C-alpha cells in the first residue's frame, strides 16, 4: 500500500470542461469571429478617411493657415483664419439657441409630462432627427431671409439650431430617464420640491450624458453646408457680425474650394477639412474632461 494519498478526482469535473467540438460551442466561436470582423470593417473605413484627410491636408498645416485670409484664385499663399472664426461664431450662436431650448424641452418630457403628449413629442423629435439638413436651410430661408429681405448669419445659426435640437432633446431625455426614481423620491422625502429635485439633484447627475449629446449636436452643425447655402453668402473676408449677410465658414470653404479645378484651392479645402475634424476632436476631448471634473 502506498504511503501517498491518491489525488481526489471529481467524476463530474470533466463535464465542466467545455468541449469545443460541440455544435453550440462552434457556433459561439463563429459568431464571435463574425462580430470581430464586423467591428474591423466598421473601424477600417473610419481610420482610412482620417488618414486620407491628414495625408491630403497635412501639407498645408502652418502658421499662415491659422492667421491669414483664404487665397483667391491664382494665389499660392493664404490661410483659413476667417473661416475658423466664422464657424465658431455661427455654431456658437446656434448652440446658444438650441442648448437651452433642447434641455428645457427634455426636462419637461422626462419630469413633468407623460402619456400621449410625451409620446407624441418624442415621436416628433425622432422624425425631426432624420430630416435632411437642406430642409432646415429651406425653412430658415423662407421664414427669415425672405421675411427680412437679406441673408444673415443669424438665419444660418437658426437653421443649424433646428438641426441641433432633436439630438439635444433625445440625449437629454434619455439621460434623465436613466437616473433612478429612488433619487427623486429621496429628494422629495426630505422636503424638496419637484423643481428643486430636478435642478439640484437629477440634472447635475445627468450632465455628463447631456454634454455628450451637445457635443454630437455641435459636431453635426459644424460640418453642415446645405443650411448655409440658403441663408448666408460666402466671403473670403473676416466675419463682420451676427447680422451680416456674409459668412466665412470651414464647411462652406470646403464646398467652394473643392468643386473647382484649382489645385492650390483644393489643397486648402483639404486643410480646412482636417482643421474641422480637429475642432470636433478638441471639442469632444474638452467635453469629456469637463464632465469628469465635476462631482457628478
From TrEMBL:
Location of this chain's protein in the cell: Cell membrane
Transport: present as a keyword of the record?
Answer: yes
SUPFAM superfamilies documented for this protein: MetI-like
* UniProt KW Transcription regulation keyword: no
Give TM regions: 26-55, 80-109, 121-144, 150-169, 268-290
Name all ABC transmembrane type-1 domain ranges: 84-287
In the bilayer, the protein is annotated as: Multi-pass membrane protein
Q: Which Pfam families match?
A: BPD_transp_1
Supply the InterPro entries for this chain: MetI-like, MetI-like_sf, Phosphate_PstA, Phosphate_transprt_permease
The protein's UniProt keywords, in alphabetical order, are: Cell membrane, Membrane, Phosphate transport, Transmembrane, Transmembrane helix, Transport
Instruction: Spell out the NCBIfam families in the cross-references.
Output: 3a0107s02c
As for family, the record states: Belongs to the binding-protein-dependent transport system permease family. CysTW subfamily.
Q: What is the recorded name of this protein?
A: Phosphate transport system permease protein PstA
- Where is the organism placed in the taxonomic lineage, from the top? Bacteria, Bacillati, Cyanobacteriota, Cyanophyceae, Oscillatoriophycideae
Amino acid at each position: 500500500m502506498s504511503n501517498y494519498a491518491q489525488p481526489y478526482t471529481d467524476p463530474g469535473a470533466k463535464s465542466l470542461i467545455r468541449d469545443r467540438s460541440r455544435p453550440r460551442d462552434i457556433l459561439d466561436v463563429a459568431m464571435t469571429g463574425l462580430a470581430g470582423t464586423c467591428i474591423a470593417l466598421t473601424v477600417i473605413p473610419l481610420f482610412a478617411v482620417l488618414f486620407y484627410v491628414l495625408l491630403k491636408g497635412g501639407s498645408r498645416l502652418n502658421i499662415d493657415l491659422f492667421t491669414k485670409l483664404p487665397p483667391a484664385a491664382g494665389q499660392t499663399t493664404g490661410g483659413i483664419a476667417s473661416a475658423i472664426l466664422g464657424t465658431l461664431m455661427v455654431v456658437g450662436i446656434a448652440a446658444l439657441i438650441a442648448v437651452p431650448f433642447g434641455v428645457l424641452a427634455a426636462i419637461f418630457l422626462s419630469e413633468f409630462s407623460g402619456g400621449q403628449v410625451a409620446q407624441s413629442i418624442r415621436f416628433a423629435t425622432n422624425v425631426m432627427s432624420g430630416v435632411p439638413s437642406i430642409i432646415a436651410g429651406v425653412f430658415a430661408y423662407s421664414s427669415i431671409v425672405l421675411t427680412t429681405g437679406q441673408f444673415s448669419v443669424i438665419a444660418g445659426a437658426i437653421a443649424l439650431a433646428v438641426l441641433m435640437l432633436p439630438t439635444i432633446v433625445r440625449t437629454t431625455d434619455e439621460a434623465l430617464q436613466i437616473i433612478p426614481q429612488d433619487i427623486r423620491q429621496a429628494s422629495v422625502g426630505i422636503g424638496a420640491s419637484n423643481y428643486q429635485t430636478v435642478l439640484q439633484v437629477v440634472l447635475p447627475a445627468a450632465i455628463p450624458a447631456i454634454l455628450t449629446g451637445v457635443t454630437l449636436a455641435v459636431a453635426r452643425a459644424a460640418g453642415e453646408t446645405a443650411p448655409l447655402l440658403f441663408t448666408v453668402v460666402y466671403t473670403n473676408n473676416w466675419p463682420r457680425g451676427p447680422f451680416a449677410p456674409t459668412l466665412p465658414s470651414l464647411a462652406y470653404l470646403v464646398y467652394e474650394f473643392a468643386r473647382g479645378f484649382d489645385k492650390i484651392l483644393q489643397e486648402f479645402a483639404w486643410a480646412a477639412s482636417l482643421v474641422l475634424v480637429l475642432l470636433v476632436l478638441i471639442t469632444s476631448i474638452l467635453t469629456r474632461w469637463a464632465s469628469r471634473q465635476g462631482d457628478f
